[in-house]
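User: Can you model how flavin-adenine dinucleotide sits in this protein?
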Amino acid sequence: MAVIGLTVNYSSPMASYTPPVRDMIFTLDTIAGIGSIIEAPEFDHVDADMIEGALDEAARFFSEVFAPTNEIGDEEGATLVDGQVITPEAFKPVWNKLVDAGWTAVTGSPEYGGHGFPKTFGIAISEMMTSANLAFSLNPMLTGSGITLLTRHGSDELRDLYLSKLISSEWTGTMVLTEPEAGSDVGALRTRADRNDDGTYRINGTKIFITWGDHDLTDNVIHMVLARTPDAPVGTKGISLFLVPKYLLDADGTPGERNTVEIVSLEHKLGIHASPTCVLSFEDSTGYLIGEENQGMRYMFTMMNQARLEVGLEGLSVAERAYQHASAYAKERTQGRMMGGSKPAPIIEHPDVRRMLMTMKAYTEAMRGLVYDAVAADDRMHCAATQEERDAARDRLALLTPITKSWCTDHGVDVASIGVQVFGGMGFIEDSGAPQFYRDARITPIYEGTNGIQALDLVMRKLPMHGGDVINGYLDEIDSLAAKLADTDDLNDIGRALSSAVATVREATRFLLGSSPSDAMAGATPYQEMLGTLAGGYYLARQAAAAVERAIDVPWLAAKVGTARFYAATVLPLINGMAGAVTSGSDTTFAVSEEYIGAVR
Ligand SMILES: Cc1cc2nc3c(=O)[nH]c(=O)nc-3n(C[C@H](O)[C@H](O)[C@H](O)COP(=O)(O)OP(=O)(O)OC[C@H]3O[C@@H](n4cnc5c(N)ncnc54)[C@H](O)[C@@H]3O)c2cc1C
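Assistant: Here's the modeled complex, given as structure tokens:
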């Protein structure tokens, strides 16, 4: 589309997305350590060449086939016609190609028809899919989390009936928790499940905000529904989990009679228009218990923890796309002259525009390090050689999950917002494409547990793990890299900045571990930002060190060092300014009484 009225004719690169394969492979190697993951016996069929070849192939698919649906999906959106969700017209053929190519089955268990690749590889594929079209990617994303849930907690019978169809994407899955009065507080949910004589359950209740709760891409939709049996204990201890299919299965396992799950309405949203967000009504719907009664919240956490990493990935993915989009514009758009210049300069030459682009780049690559490291821990907790390594990976994943979800989504929104700014006035105009990334990104800090809830999880549950040993171990790891780098000729500035930042975070951590719950809760979100900012600097510093080790005279490796240096100089020092907000306590937060908050006459 040509944007008119500018001093230059600007062809919007709206549909263009180039998966950053080289950076993905570099991060998989240097941060995630994929080489050691694929040494595990279950990945005997996977090798490094295969991974690189598959990433190149995927890059072609997601840039050429999937990415062009992004703008169409946003404009057309999903609609509800006669109780059935209709997806944008362009989606069905692309969905079929996606499924035929097997990109949704890469990490699925070979026992049920999946390709059995590590999640650490799967995350790179997911990144491409999500950058290409965030709204569309939510369908396979939730299906994937449901597959993990069913694999770990489903009975043999449920696994046999549903897993291979979900892995092959013949059917898709949903996550059904939220009710009008039960959002962050899932324990307040009221949907009821009564046991039938044949062992199935009758589900009754209304659920809201259900992503891809219905659609026309597949023959069946499998809902993972939280509900409460009669006389169940109050709160989260009384929640059970049920598999509720849109179509009940016939004796031969094919979809037959329609279950009584009604799609009441679709939400009209700020972004992710192509993702149908449904109000679902369950009216004596048939459900199948997963695991045991009253253990549903525990099982659902398997699904939610995976989804939280994937939502963190959404922050990274939308940031990457917004960054590519803004960089392309900044190279093309001319405005103003450089000092001493006679011709209008491309805006990328202005120091402030360059600062914006470097900020976008640095945060995006830092997020990639964090997300890939967290997902590698997810693989290692299953496939590492010793129990000790598996336990350490489990703890690392537990610590990194809330940071990944919150920090990457908060900064995904920030990066998309900077992208709008790079476009100047055109950034506010839909035709430029920049607003969609910003609108789409805005949901990510909200769903899958708001970032405020992530902060509580981080500070109240994750910091105290093993008496603070897990967080202190992570900070020690950062400290030891900082000390090593501070001793080098090339990277000592990065080492010193990291060392100063980690000292501040250590002090804030000590404060939170020793403070009252109300003070800790008041400082939780600033602390989460602080720790995420440090983690971002750590992953960039590791990448810089690896770049120097490989060949600093290779331009793109030198760019990795330049990016880490920029972050160390301009972002890491912000941590000092965050300390006050972490340690000021709840007296400060509650210093103004409720009556003076809001309109006061
Ligand atoms: C587009 C979209 C898609 C969604 N997809 C799904 C889905 O597929 N499945 C599903 O089950 N749900 C889904 N949700 C629901 C989503 O997970 C919830 O909206 C979210 O968890 C917040 O719940 P709430 O909206 O009730 O807000 P509330 O819980 O009312 O929160 C309002 C504010 O209060 C804060 N708050 C609440 N409780 C606390 C507390 N204890 N301590 C500190 N702060 C607190 C929150 O952080 C937030 O800022 C989706 C929502 C949207 C908008």
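A couple of observations from the model: The first strand starts at residue 2 and ends at 3. Residues 1-11 have pLDDT under 50 and may be disordered.
User: Helpful, thanks.
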